[in-house]
Amino acid sequence: MTFAPPWQAALPGLRFREAFALTQAVSASTYIAPGGPAVGMALAYGMLRRHFPRKAITLALAVTTVWGQFALLGLPSVALVLLTLSGEKHPLLQTVAFIGLGIFVVAAGAYAAGLFSARLARWVGNMAARITTWGLRHARKEPVKWSGETFAEFRRDAIGLLRHRWHILTLATLVGHLTVFSVLLVSLRVFDVTAGEVSVVEAFAAWSLIRLLGSIPITPGGLGVIELGLTTALVGFGGANAEVVAAVLVYRFLTLVPTLLLGLVAGVTWRRRFPVPTP
Q1: What secondary structure does DSSP assign to 124-158, as a single string?
Q2: d(C-alpha 70, C-alpha 66), whole Å
Q3: What are the tens digits of pLDDT across the range 9-49?
Q4: 88-93, Cβ contacts within 8 angstroms, sequence gap of 24 or more
Q5: Three-state DSSP class for 213?
Q6: Residue 115 binned pLDDT confidence (cut-offs 50, 70, 90)
Q7: What are the respective helix, strand and coil percentages of the chain, to the nearest 5?
Q8: DSSP H or E run through 118
Q9: Residues 6+ apart with CB under 8 A from 170
Q10: What Rg do the C-alpha atoms of the chain give, in angstroms?
Q11: Which of 139-153, 187-201, 220-234 has the lowest mean pLDDT?
């Protein structure tokens, strides 16, 4: 349910039931298709292109992806601070958190610079167009039809959207991530992994660390990688092996299977349930 609001914030006019169906289908595609987020972005564009202007869809894809990556990169650093305040140390988390924080700062700086300067956006667009056209020419394809001015227009649209909706988008993105963590925390407590074994801060640290590592598209949906990494981290914090394994498997089932089933249904029935509106 919390996957939909970021898209509603980024694409004005998108209703909740449409956003819900869209996000379930997109998430399901990343679980079963190689390519991960790239496949999901292509599917989202294909589902929305008959309902919204292409520029609006591209902008929504960009800001939801960027905000999601900012959360993914920033949460391990928050976990590291919380662990430090509680007097604990975790070498792997420290390493990943510092790397993630460095990437976050660079990415945020580049994004802010692109929004701040129309000249920079135009220069990047022209450079990207030349490089892409050069590659297409060698593949005997037509040159691209966009240019630096397209990037400058995109910048203006992004500033207009974020000026009014950045706080809603940020809050919705954080809620979407943290509700997934809450499923893990409930699973741990249900299987008797007590706060004395793994505290809320330790569970959050393990979850944020493995989510970041699992975002590397080694397997669809991080299948196998997240289960193994999360179990290892939680046992390392002090959880009993059998209870942690059970909790992690239930957590993964609850966060994968319902979305997979709902997403497949939403993808198949999208055109029937959400026909193209009359002009």
Answers
A1: HHHHHHHHHHHHHHHTT-PPPS--HHHHHHHHHHH
A2: 6
A3: 999 999 999 999 999 999 988 887 766 677 888 899 999 98
A4: 88/201, 88/202, 90/205, 90/236, 90/237, 92/209, 92/233, 93/205, 93/209
A5: helix
A6: low
A7: 80, 0, 20
A8: helix 118-138
A9: 67
A10: 21
A11: 139-153
CA–CA separation, 81 and 62 (whole Å): 29
C-alpha dihedral (81, 87, 92, 97), degrees to nearest 10:
10
- pTM for the full predicted model: 0.80
Write out the two tokens for 221: 């949906």
**Would you state the structure tokens that stand for residue 158, as one six-digit string?**
């992004």
90 closest CA partner among 195, 98, 192: 98
User: Token digits for 64?
Assistant: 């939801």
Q: Scanning the structure block, which residue is given the tokens 């990415």?
A: 107
Q: What interhelical angle do 54-85 and 148-190 show, nearest 10?
A: 40
Token pair of 224, please? Answer: 């196998």
Q: Determine the residue type at 14.
A: L
